[in-house]
Design a protein that fits this description.
alpha/beta, elongated, 232 residues, seven-stranded mixed sheet, 9 helices
């Protein structure tokens, strides 16, 4: 299904929302995701939540203007604290820092349920998010690097399995599925990261600082790019 009203990173999330579910959009801002999903007939009920009164009022006004007030509930709450009562099964947390995403998930016991799908688009701290998911027993069912508005975004789908697992530093930053799939956008992302880390190593060396962590990442990037060349 095409979501022409959404930018690519939000469309990626919308396309992975299951049909007929109760959907929650945490930090909804302008309620773009819930509005698009309800208009498409993809969800039976949507919850648009935000911690701020101002964004919630803007979201409610947009929802009303679209004639969707009966299908989308607006909730002012911190994270998922006011959302659990609606029993959502597909939950989007997009456009926030990774530390904030982890804090929201850590405070929400009800997501420890294999029937719930987490749709995450952290803006920063991807390592923190993936390590939180791995340590907490959330399997990454899907992920991708999405080009949107001139930037590259990491998008993930996670489902609770209750079985913690280990990941290395490169997998934590880039994603195990991404490394396996080697999509063109992912490879572009790796090349960008490689350039950034090389500059960081050079700067640290000039300052006489330890570069072992960065050198480990650089080796990982190079192995991925070499594997890509071998498959071409």
């Amino acid at each position: 299904m095409q979501y022409d009203t959404l930018n690519p990173r939000l469309a990626w999330i919308a396309e992975r929302v299951r049909r007929g579910v109760i959907f929650a959009d945490v930090g909804t801002d302008h309620a773009k995701l819930p509005i698009a999903l309800v208009h498409a007939g993809q969800v039976s009920l949507a919850i648009a939540s935000d911690i701020g009164e101002g964004p919630a009022k803007i979201a409610a006004a947009r929802i009303a203007a679209e004639g969707l007030s009966d299908s989308i509930r607006v909730v002012v709450c911190d994270g998922l604290t006011g959302v659990a009562c609606f029993a959502p099964t597909d939950i989007a947390i997009c456009g926030m820092g990774g530390e904030t995403v982890c804090g929201i998930l850590a405070a929400s016991d009800f997501i420890h349920d294999p029937r719930i799908r987490l749709l995450l688009q952290p803006m920063t701290d991807f390592v923190l998010v993936r390590r939180f998911l791995a340590d907490g027993g959330f399997e990454i069912a899907d992920e991708d690097i999405v080009s949107s508005d001139g930037r590259l975004y990491q998008c993930l789908v996670a489902v609770y399995s209750g079985k913690p697992y280990s990941i290395d530093e490169v997998e934590a930053e880039l994603g195990r599925l991404n490394i396996k799939r080697l999509t063109p956008t992912f490879l572009e992302y790796v090349r960008r990261r490689k350039s950034i880390v090389e500059k960081c190593i050079n700067g640290k060396r000039r300052a006489g600082a330890d570069t072992s962590e960065e050198e480990g990442l650089l080796r990982g990037y190079e192995e991925i790019l070499e594997a890509c060349c071998e498959t071409e």
